[in-house]
Amino acid sequence: MAGNTFGKNFTITTFGESHGPALGAIVDGCPPGLYICESDIQRDLNSRRPGSSHYTTQRRENDEVKILSGVFEGITTGTPIGLLIYNEDSRSKDYSEIKYKFRPGHADYTYNHKYGIRDYRGGGRSSARETVMRVAAGAIAKKYLATLGIRVMGYISKLGSIELPFVTWEYINENPFFCADPTKISQLKNYMDSLRRDKDSIGAQISIIADGLPTGIGDPIFDRLDADIANCLMSINAVKCVEIGGGGKVVSQLGSKNRDEITPQGFISNNAGGLLGGISTGQPIIVHIALKPTSSITTLCKSIDVNGNYVDVVTKGRHDPCVGIRATPIAEAMIALTIIDHLLRNRAQNYDVKINTNII
Amino acid sequence: MAGNTFGKNFTITTFGESHGPALGAIVDGCPPGLYICESDIQRDLNSRRPGSSHYTTQRRENDEVKILSGVFEGITTGTPIGLLIYNEDSRSKDYSEIKYKFRPGHADYTYNHKYGIRDYRGGGRSSARETVMRVAAGAIAKKYLATLGIRVMGYISKLGSIELPFVTWEYINENPFFCADPTKISQLKNYMDSLRRDKDSIGAQISIIADGLPTGIGDPIFDRLDADIANCLMSINAVKCVEIGGGGKVVSQLGSKNRDEITPQGFISNNAGGLLGGISTGQPIIVHIALKPTSSITTLCKSIDVNGNYVDVVTKGRHDPCVGIRATPIAEAMIALTIIDHLLRNRAQNYDVKINTNII
Amino acid sequence: MAGNTFGKNFTITTFGESHGPALGAIVDGCPPGLYICESDIQRDLNSRRPGSSHYTTQRRENDEVKILSGVFEGITTGTPIGLLIYNEDSRSKDYSEIKYKFRPGHADYTYNHKYGIRDYRGGGRSSARETVMRVAAGAIAKKYLATLGIRVMGYISKLGSIELPFVTWEYINENPFFCADPTKISQLKNYMDSLRRDKDSIGAQISIIADGLPTGIGDPIFDRLDADIANCLMSINAVKCVEIGGGGKVVSQLGSKNRDEITPQGFISNNAGGLLGGISTGQPIIVHIALKPTSSITTLCKSIDVNGNYVDVVTKGRHDPCVGIRATPIAEAMIALTIIDHLLRNRAQNYDVKINTNII
Amino acid sequence: MAGNTFGKNFTITTFGESHGPALGAIVDGCPPGLYICESDIQRDLNSRRPGSSHYTTQRRENDEVKILSGVFEGITTGTPIGLLIYNEDSRSKDYSEIKYKFRPGHADYTYNHKYGIRDYRGGGRSSARETVMRVAAGAIAKKYLATLGIRVMGYISKLGSIELPFVTWEYINENPFFCADPTKISQLKNYMDSLRRDKDSIGAQISIIADGLPTGIGDPIFDRLDADIANCLMSINAVKCVEIGGGGKVVSQLGSKNRDEITPQGFISNNAGGLLGGISTGQPIIVHIALKPTSSITTLCKSIDVNGNYVDVVTKGRHDPCVGIRATPIAEAMIALTIIDHLLRNRAQNYDVKINTNII
């Protein structure tokens, strides 16, 4: 059933498979008056682009996006924005071997059972390739949010058992890991190289911060901003855990420590991660996600074929040894899309949300 | 803005505040032909009812539910089911002191900023009291799912730093903690008593398992079942973390260990928690949530009033020293509501889902 | 499947059957800060109330509404508003004869086939009795719209072949027909009396005008305001035609006459009925609906029973000889609900819509 | 705000302007297993294509559609179907004169006020050009419905004051008017030629019949099938009236004549147009729509510019002298989309709807 539209007020609907002719999106509900051009989107696409480093999949895609509607003389008109990217480097023959096999850890098994038919080439629609359109749409959301002083930024905070604490935003786009600590890069490279030698893969934790939000975003009791953030992040391939603020650590915290006391100068801590009762407090939104290790590794494993018979599976194709790395721009995009959707819907009652509606 | 409806095919819409005259829900989309009566719902309501033990809030509510429509001669007719519960033991005078103050860790601050007006009595709509209607609606969902062999069950798996491993479902309803291990009860009681003496509170982790699901439930790429489970659970008051299957632990797992290999006899592990590509595999769905400690404790803390001036806050009222405990039936209800919603929507394409539509 | 929620931003969800214990609604998304009390709603309920004149059904209901949530100290808080009306004069025994029969022109046949089970008492959920909750929710919408200078008013413009042109709003609530022409009342009374003698019924046309709308309401290409007005009116029992502006007459109009030319002083005509491209022009919205004659008449007719066998049907019960008459406040309510829903959603982009958000 | 998605279960989301580079659609929720190829869609596109006769706009577009996803080896996979058509014959310079003027009867005025910015070339998004994507998506819906024995067919039933009764489906695609009566063609041609000489335009009535529907489609009380049909048709440019079954004529009908009596052999009439209580009866759905005359005619008229000053407007461009004619395939498409959406949603409860889910 239809499940490819995200959002209510600022919506994105996407299509496209890993090895089909093209991927596309329709962004609907973008306010008129925003300057936007293809290069605004391209910047974000490039940061998630496959083939850009030794540590991600070697598939090479230019991911060149075309804006087909909704922008007139460089300015959004309020009508839907059509986006299109043609696939260029899809080597479908890599996949003929798995035509009748289910790769463990992948969606092959569930797609086959659900739909009765499966585009097996590169995982078809279930491939992380579909996230290119999330990032493209997210770039528009981020540009709009930026005009309001809202920024959404992520970094890798853990890779395997290597803790990667936040040091500086400046460094993030200058290394292939979205790592915010320059001193950790050689350790990461060595670990990734050893993984590749072992024909194995590893999980990762990504942290995202959104700051500049006004107080008052989120619609209890079901359309809470925290609930929708959990939704948008768990919809990303390989994500198995979403934490807000203190996250899993709150289990062993005392109430006297956890509650963020308030002073006339503001909150004195942010264990809540910027959300109380599902509504933004005005503090930064802080979120962490855990991504499982890539299931496609070149180490042989056991599985079954479509007839239920035992088979060996060795995934050839070209894959990321740590899918978590490239998830950073995707998670940023999903958070940006969630925030803009809520922001526009809250403007409906004009509570506390003041927005500049001049051409921006 | 409107945010009080949950689901698309089997929807619940709720109303009601902690100290208003009544709480209610409309359950829309329940298939016709299901035997349902008030006592089916009452059973679940009683398990989350306040005042039922020494270890939860002392507010006493009978939570007696009335079915006002949608059921004719004991059988659902396919029309919306109206549910109503009157509040009985609301002591609003307990709250007059916080009329102009924001309790840290509560939604007082955000509701005030969002809406410009706030029913301060017991937190109004932001009180966990609203969850009574989630449990009532969830009971209908659970009864329907049971006719298909689907069960949703939860237990407390951690309280503070006390690990509470699963031992047996039988014991869960026989202790006030939803604990599945009979040997841990005295430790829990002692710890809770010490908390009360210290005027403090603690967090908890709840685990929920749904078994009996057919393969094929969930609609990628945005209406994935895992994304909607994350959403439904993060919408519960005090939840700060949602984990599926391996959850946060996947960060440090190797791909060769994490991927669940398949044999003709079935999957050999379930790190995925019953979900691949956002679609149910047919294995049990396994989910964990972390709930923060109750913010309302009788230890004095710093805050501000509605004018931004410094104030001391001591919460009187009647509160749970560990809100996580009573979250077990609420989390079960939300998962049941999410599953039935997806199940009915998937029947739309009739993929793999076979359902008995006789009167049940 | 779930179909009992109307709107996206200002939503109403309703429940209740003709002869069940109660009917109810949840109004979600009403802006905070609106003064509202039960008597505001009661006024509109009284105008559609059965038993209020010799010319409508003799069922007597007080239709006394209770507000159960969402209003604190007389002011809306932004949380959902629960509304409840208990049924008082339901004589279910009147209907036992039709338990196994399908009344022609009614939904008995379709409900039975769709759901496999039917609350036959008074038509159950398919009875026009459900419209009481549309009117209650509509009263809240109308009060909010009134604060913005938007009024929605209707009158009967045709009954059978009697044309009833608009003369004055003042007279409408002073006659049992919602007729705007005082000179027509005796003709209407005579005609209705003759119908009753003939044990027959008749159709009617209702016209509704909404004025005071800002320019710019409506979201092409699918969520156009005209499309949503057509939807809301065709959802009323017995309506078979919806016309906007020139309506059916545009078929034989020339373009040179139909297009509404514009001058610096404004449009020189309003054949468009206040809508161009699905967006409000700022002129009055003008709509006409046609309602079929009551199917429940005491003249015998042919039908079948649930086993497909031939039966005679004579409807006893208590019915309106012209259902169209009481449709006036219902149509007003539906238009008001549609306009407020669009108005709030358009405020999301703040285009041209300026709204006072002080407490009103 | 977002308004470019239609449907809930089988959804279409569209983008594109009259003179932009391309138009596109995403069809989401199409069941897997349907054979579909571009020529299936092209057939319907050709029937609404501009430039195909002397009696419609002279703009020449091949309207060649590409399927970009969702179909694998000629069969739908259950994933979203991306559709794309490039614009070829857009002469934007025709429109430079109206850059600052509002054409009466068009959406220029309302778009300008709503969005503050307007793609004036050919009406931009408000052009009937957007309907090309409705027809493309509708072709997929029609093919699916055909496998269930459901057909949706339309014809022109009135042009100006010329009544065009139904004679035979065979003739409809063999004349440029979608006229079902071969004897009327010369009269139509003469009338259209005289209109062109007079530089004027005329309205039309289109009738659509859907047969083969099972009993039980439609979800009261708000998601009724009749309400959604009214919505889908009123969303078509220039439509001002939607009638179901007896339509406007029911106003002067007696109840004893209007109600469709039932016999063991079936209904003896179909004044209800195949819908009772908003649910399909199993009889043919019968609908009529009225379309206003084209506003763009070469006769000078009065208007204002964006500064509110008086201007003369003479529309150059290339336009249909009767927009109603080409509305036939568009109306068919919208009805087909509405029916498939309801059909799939009703299969959720499996009531009375039996559907072949083999590869078709």
List keywords for this structure.
FMN (chains A, B, C, D); globular; 7 helices; aromatic amino acid biosynthesis (chains A, B, C, D); alpha+beta; 5-stranded antiparallel sheet; Chorismate_synth (chains A, B, C, D); disordered C terminus; 360 residues; Chorismate_synthase_CS (chains A, B, C, D); homotetramer; NADP (chains A, B, C, D)
Low-pLDDT stretches of chain A: 348-360
Largest sheet of chain A: 5 strands, antiparallel
Estimate percent helicity of chain A.
10-25%
Counting structural domains of chain A, the number is 1
Distance between the termini of chain A: 38 Å
Q: What is the number of E strands of chain A?
A: 18
CATH topology category name of chain A: Chorismate synthase, AroC fold
Catalytic activity (chains A, B, C, D): 5-O-(1-carboxyvinyl)-3-phosphoshikimate = chorismate + phosphate
Family (chains A, B, C, D): Belongs to the chorismate synthase family.
Protein name (chains A, B, C, D): Chorismate synthase
Keywords (chains A, B, C, D): Amino-acid biosynthesis, Aromatic amino acid biosynthesis, FAD, Flavoprotein, FMN, Lyase, NADP
